[in-house]
Structures are given as structure tokens and as C-alpha cells.
Amino acid sequence: MFADYSMTELMSIFAMQGFAGLSLFSIFVLMALGLAIIFGQMGVINMAHGEFMILGAYTTYLTAQVFESVMPGLYGGYFFVAMILAFVVTFALGALVEWLMIRHLYHRPLDTLLATWGLSLILQQTYRSVFGAREVGVSLPDWMMGSIQVTDMVEIPINGLFVMVLSLLIAFAVYLLMFRSGWGRQVRAVVQNRPMAEAVGIDSGRVDRVTFALGCGIAGIAGSAFTMIGSTGPTSGQLYIVDTFLVVVFGGAQSLLGTIASAFTISQAQSTMEFFLSGSMAKVLTLLFVVGILMLRPQGLFALKVRR
Amino acid sequence: MKLSKTQTSTRRSSWTRRHLLGGLMALPALFALSNTALADAANTTGLAVTDDTVKVGILHSITGTMAISETGSVQAEKLAIEQINASGGVLGRQIEYIQEDGASDWPTFAEKSRKLLVNDKVAAVFGCWTSASRKAVLPVFEQYNGMLYYPTFYEGLEQSPNVIYTGQEATQQILASIDWLAKEKGAKTFYLLGSDYIWPRTSNKIARKHIDKLGLKVVGEEYYPLGHTQFNSVINKIKLKKPDVIFASVVGGSNVAFYKQMKAAGVDLTKEKPLLMTISVTEDEILGIGGENVEGAYASMKYFQSLTNANNEAFVKAFKERWGDDIVIGDVTQAAYLGPWLWKAAVEKAGSFDIAKVQAASPGIELTTAPEGYVRIHENHHLWSKARIGQAQTDGQYKLIYETEELMEPNPFPEGYQ
């Protein structure tokens, strides 16, 4: 399988695939961070995570439409506005859903699976009624279109770089929020011991709501970023949900660092294999590899050390 | 209506009472007689045909993942039916349609087609889109002897007396495009890429055989699951292999990701190399992909919305008046539009709605009013039609680059390709 290529070609293949892997990695991180916060910290299985992403994507689409028709001169910058709006909209919906539905189900974690699955169906149908069954696409501003030529064969797409920087920034922001702020300390306290946290005066209901909404908001940003690489349809969210759970579970559900490590491992393994084997074969081998590791370490790559 | 009734009755009042009585008594009998006589002549097999109406079925997915593609077909079929009704119907009868939803689910397609044929006794069904749905309904149509007008370009290798195929089969689309690439563009190497299901795989099998036959070379073949959005790796492979042609049969939403990522990775389709030939991206898909991402790609279809002929201009105008100005019309939509018109022509040639007679009358039926120009039904129930190559423009339309001079004979079983 390596014999068909010369040494220099192999070098550039690994460089190109390494970069393809990095951009897959940043997509995984964006998808999984929101879920890791909700599933890892709260134990809620949010099957509607994909639909929150799609809400972010549709928000971006609408923003792009508005910019295009009202202020075409500023189109180059629409994306930043769109991302903020996507976050705000999904955050708000997340808070609403938590208040209406999730908070009644905290003692029945498996039921959150059913409830959020129902929610995902409702959201899908809503998107279909509002935006139609047809998939919509957003055109990129010119500055995001090109690629940077590194060598003859290695070219790095600018939008890929953009997603990468974005996901690193968001991961860093989440890290600050969870580990370097008072609020993060409250979240972690509630996760580890709810009665004790309440006893020291933490409003655990409010912490839950903000945590859930934050997870949804990050999903919205992820969806917004996805409009750069793919299309948006009512059921597009379903495509991401399996990969997302895979990343979160493999990383060890309660560890954000684990999520990032697992996203990196899976994406690099998949992208390198994808070049030499067919796409489906690479996926199968990746899954086998993940299942193998999970059999040895059921708690995932990184486990939180708590006294049970 | 009311006025004419009063007029008749005033005229009648001048008749003698005996005349009137006799007339009144004879009237229902006459009515019944004419009813059976007329219906008998045109329909001996108990189809849902009355003196004034005839029922047909429309069977497409209006929910589920295929709804995106099949919506256009439904609109085209309804438009054709409305136009036929406005021009006097079929054998003097207005067409009524019963619409069923296949829901993108093949068993549902089979079940609904059984319902249409057995319970509703429709005279014809216009429908199906994917090969999988057609394969699912085929035994039902053969068992209950119905007529299906199937609009999608497909892989061929099939022929049924109960189906009229109004789209192209493989030789009219795949072989024609490869011949053109080899002859006009001097293409030597091909990279085959498709979504992972029956149609792209069969299409590429046929393409590969033909490429081998011409003495050219396939340098890569690759399939990705439906809905896949990560094409970075395959684009890298394409860049490394430097094929003359990327032969693409990626379907649905994946196309958006594929073309956007190609563009971002610096593959310029407007250049001479690599050329991209798609057999799956119609104007409908470009709407989602965005014209600027797909600009320069070639498509092998028999119909483009931009065709300039009087038939097509009238069709596009009527379509937009009926379904909205911002709509686009793709290849399959036009093929779906042909269905009701071909059926009407066959029924009128047969002088009957009977399935057997319509089947017998079908070969040789021609449409001079088809938006694609002119079509004729072959003995093998496929259409003689032109093969056309278009190049995608930034406005989302195809520019006609090449068309065969003669109509291409449909050949669903090309030698050596089974």
C-alpha cells in the first residue's frame, strides 16, 4: 500500500492527511464539547444535540441572507455576527428546554434520552416546515475561500484553518470557564456531590440550567462553523450525533481533556487510514479500535477520580 | 348553468305532454346505455374510469430524505395533468389524481403502489425516484398489471412491459459523456467517485468497463456513505493522482460539502484539468451547493432548464407561473413532466384505458411538444432522446456545450455490461 508512492510523495501525503486530520479534529472538538458538558457534567443524554447544531446553522444562514440583501458591503464580516447570534439563539432555546423538560428528569437519566429524542424529531419537523425540505447553503465571503500553498502538493484551505482556530479558542474558553472561574467551581461541585453543594449555598437548579444552555450554545457555534464546509437540512444533525457520542464516550464522559484527546486520536487515525484504504474501511477500523480500547478501559481514556 | 336549464324547460313546455313523458322515461335508459357503451369501449378491465373522469396515481416521497429530490417531480406531474385537463382531458375525461407518499422508504412504496392498483384501480401511476423504490414496486406492477411512468435517469439493465422509463438509461448518459470526454477533451485518466449505494456503484461499473474498452485508465474509485461531509482525504488523493477527469455520482446533500471543499482546497473546475463530469448534480442540487462552488463542472443530462427552444420556454414559463418564480427545473423534473403526456398519447392511440392496449400502443408514441425537444418511445419502453453536456455557471444554470445530432437509441442492456 505504500509501494505505489515515492518517498517525497509519502511525506506530503502524511502532511496533507495530517492536516485533514487536524481539521476533522477541530470539527470533532466543536461537536463534542457541548455534549461533553451536558453528558459529562450532568449525565443528561442529549439526543437533540445535532438539532441544536442545525439551529445554529440555520441562524447563520438567515444572518447571511440578511447581510446579503441589506448590507452586502459588510458581507465579509457576517460570519462573526452569525456566530454570536447562533450562540445566543441556541443558548436561549437550551435554557427553555431545560426549564420545560430536562429539570423534571434529572433522577431518570435514561428518560432524558427518550425525551430529547422526541425533542429532536419535533425540531426536525419544525425546520422542515419553516425552511423547507431542501438543503440550504451559505456562500462564504471571499477571504475565506482560498487556500495557502505550502509545497507543490500541500495546500491548506483557509476555512479549515479558521475552524481550527475557532475550536481551539472555544476549547480554551470552556477550560477557563470550568476550571478557572467561580461558576465552573460551582458546576464541578454540583457534579461531584449535589446535596453537599446545595448545603454550602449553591443554587443547583440555576447551575444546571446554565450548564445545559451553555452546552447547547456551543452546539450552536459548531453548527454555525459547519455551514462553511457542508449544507444544512432538517435532518443534517443526525449525521453528527453518532460521531459525537463516540468521541465523548471514548474520551471518558466526565473529562473535557479526555474529549479533546479522544477527538485527536480518532480523527488522526481515521484520516491517515482514509488515504490508503477506502473511506468505509477506515471508519470500520476506527470503530474497531475504539471498541477495543473501551473493552480494556470501560471508563474511557481519562476518568475522573471520585470517591463513590 | 341555471339560465340554460330554464331555457330548456321553457322550450319543453311547448311540447305535448305525451312527448315530455316519453322523453323523460327514455332519458335515464339512454343515459345508462351511453354510459356503459362509452365506458365499455374505453375500459374493459374495471379501472377507475367514468364518463367524465379517469383516476391516476402520483407516488413520490414527500417526506423523508428523498423529499428534496422528488418534490420537483410531483410538481411537474401535477402541472402536466392540469394542462391536459385544461386542454380537454384524455378521451374526453378529466384526470383526477390520487397522491400517495412513499416516505423515502422502499417497502412503503410497494405497499402504496398495491393500494393504488388494487383499491383505487388507477389507470396509470407516475412516480418513484430512486432505483431502490422502483425495484420495490416493480413486482407489484407486474402482478396487478399496472402502468408506471418512471422519471429518473438510472443504471439501466432493466426492462418491463409495465414501466415506461422517461429518463435516460446508462448508455445515454454515462457512455455518451465518456465518449465526449475522450473525443473532445482528450481525457486519458479518470477518477470515479460516488455515494455508496446501488446507482453510483452500478454506474461506475459501467463507466469503468467503457473506459477500459476505449483503452483509457481508471486511476481511482471511491465511495462515501450518503450524507458524508468530509471529503478532504479523497480530494488529497485526487490532487496526487492528477486525473484528467473526476467522474462524480455523489448524490444529495453530500454534494454541497464535496464542491465547497474542492473549491477551498484549490481545485479549480474552470481549468482544463481536472475536469469534473457529474451525472447526479442537476439545477436542483446547485441551489444548495451554490453556483460559485460548482462553476465549470460538466454534467451529462438530457435536459437543462436553459435549453432554448419554444417548447422549453413555454414549459419553464408555465412551471414558474404554477409553482413560483424562484424555482429551478432539473433533468428529472422534465422527465416527470413527460409521463402524463406520453400516457395521454398512448391512451388516445389505443382508444382505450386498458393496460394491455396502452402497452401495445406505447412503442412509437412521439411527443413533439417535449421541453427537451422531441422524444419517442422505443420498443424497449425507454425514450429515444438526445444526450447533452452542459457546463455549470455561477448563476446555477447549465450552459449547453454539446448535444448529439441524432436521437440516441435507448439500449438498457448494452453488450458486455450486464
From TrEMBL, chain A:
Task: Identify one Pfam family in the record.
Answer: BPD_transp_2
Q: Which GO terms describe its biological process?
A: amino acid transport
InterPro entries assigned to the protein according to its UniProt record, in alphabetical order: ABC_transp_permease (IPR001851), ABC_UrtB_bac (IPR017779), BCAA_transport_permease (IPR052157)
Keyword Transport, does the record have it?
A: yes
Annotated TM spans? 20-40, 52-71, 77-97, 156-178, 212-233, 239-263, 275-296
GO CC aspect terms:
plasma membrane
Gene Ontology molecular function: transmembrane transporter activity
Compartment list:
Cell inner membrane
Q: How does it sit in the membrane?
A: Multi-pass membrane protein
Give the record's keywords alphabetically: Amino-acid transport, Cell membrane, Membrane, Transmembrane, Transmembrane helix, Transport
Signal peptide region: none
* Family note: Belongs to the binding-protein-dependent transport system permease family. LivHM subfamily.
Which PANTHER family does the UniProt entry name for this protein? ABC TRANSPORTER PERMEASE PROTEIN, BRANCHED-CHAIN AMINO ACID TRANSPORT SYSTEM PERMEASE PROTEIN LIVH
Mind telling me what this protein is named? Answer: Urea ABC transporter permease subunit UrtB
Automatic annotation (TrEMBL), chain B:
Pfam families assigned: Peripla_BP_5
Q: Biological process (GO) annotations? A: amino acid transport
Source species, domain of life: Bacteria
- The source organism is Alcanivorax sediminis
PANTHER family, per database record: ALIPHATIC AMIDASE EXPRESSION-REGULATING PROTEIN (PTHR47628:SF1), PTHR47628
Which keywords fit this entry according to its UniProt record?
A: Signal
Where is the signal peptide, in residue numbers? 1-39
Name of this chain's protein: Urea ABC transporter substrate-binding protein
Q: Does the keyword S-adenosyl-L-methionine apply?
A: no
